[in-house]
Design brief:
Layout (H helix, E strand, L loop, with lengths): L1 H20 L3 H6 L4 H31 L3 H23 L1 H24 L10 H28 L12 H36 L10 H34 L5 H20 L2
Helix pairs in contact: 1-3, 3-4, 3-8, 4-5, 5-6, 5-9, 6-7, 7-8, 8-9
């Protein structure tokens, strides 16, 4: 696993990051001021995330292959925390998703603030920024992603795409991922920018430069949507493909939230740029 992590790190550092982040002023200024240090952290974070996903996927499939059944695969994937989380989901499904999304979203904002302020002698932690971002991830991201995943799970697949046996599960996961990364990613990201500006207005001081939050959200969307989607497509297709393929429906929002810790770091830096 250590060798796999190092391989992912070297591959991303050599082939992906120099191409996408190499000379862009937008990425240097918006992602983090301390470019080289934080590209190092970001690369390690994505490498570790990919390693954990592959390990969880292999363990789940191994449990199924050994005849232990889906229950054993679930237990292998989320271990003991799954049972407790499942009970909370049964009793308070939306509240559980809202709270977990807010906590994990806030974690992403805390991490990126600490990284951005690592080399600053006058760094002051922005609690208002943390409150705003946590509110958006809990009250917007959690319900929207939850209902979106439910709809994707119920979405009928055309007959021509259906395959026999277990191959059909792979095709269905791919089919769901394509919808998720085209329509879903675009609409949800636009909604995030508008929700962020709306919540910003709720917590003073709010300084949109003398324009309404709708105009401010439109400007943020116009300036950042495409760049955000491009970076989204480097990370989320493989994550959500595995999410749809091996993770039970009730745990998909949680899995997405955990994977999104590093994504939330990026979103927070873009929204607060």
């Amino acid at each position: 696993m250590y060798l796999l992590t190092n391989f992912c790190y070297l591959f991303l550092r050599t082939y992906f990051l120099p191409v996408h982040f190499g000379s862009s002023d937008w990425n240097r200024n918006i992602l983090v001021p301390n470019y080289n240090l934080n590209m190092h952290y970001l690369t390690w974070a994505v490498s570790l995330l990919l390693m954990c996903i592959c390990h969880a996927y292999a363990g789940s499939r191994a449990s199924l292959a050994n005849g232990k059944g889906l229950a054993a695969a679930k237990q292998n994937f989320v271990q003991e925390a799954a049972g407790r989380y499942a009970k909370l989901l049964d009793k308070h499904p939306m509240t559980t998703k809202i709270v977990s999304s807010g906590v994990i979203g806030g974690t992403g904002d805390i991490l990126i603030q600490l990284l951005q302020g690592r080399k600053s002698s006058n760094f002051v932690f922005d609690y208002r920024r943390l409150l705003v971002f946590s509110t958006v991830t809990s009250l917007y991201i959690a319900p929207v992603i939850g209902y979106w995943f439910d709809w994707l799970a119920r979405m009928p697949m055309p007959e021509r795409f259906k395959k026999p046996g277990k191959l059909n599960e792979v095709y269905r996961a791919l089919y769901m991922m394509v919808f998720d990364q085209t329509i879903g990613a675009t609409v949800i990201t636009i909604g995030f920018f508008y929700a962020f500006e709306f919540v910003q207005k709720l917590f003073p001081p709010y300084s949109p430069g003398g324009i309404s939050f709708l105009a401010s959200a439109y400007k943020l969307t116009k300036d950042s949507l495409w760049k955000t989607l491009v970076i989204n497509w480097y990370m989320w297709p493989i994550i959500n493909f595995l999410n749809f393929l091996v993770v039970p429906l009730q745990f998909r929002v949680l899995f997405s939230n955990i994977a999104a810790i590093f994504w939330n770091m990026f979103l927070s830096s873009v929204a607060n740029a």
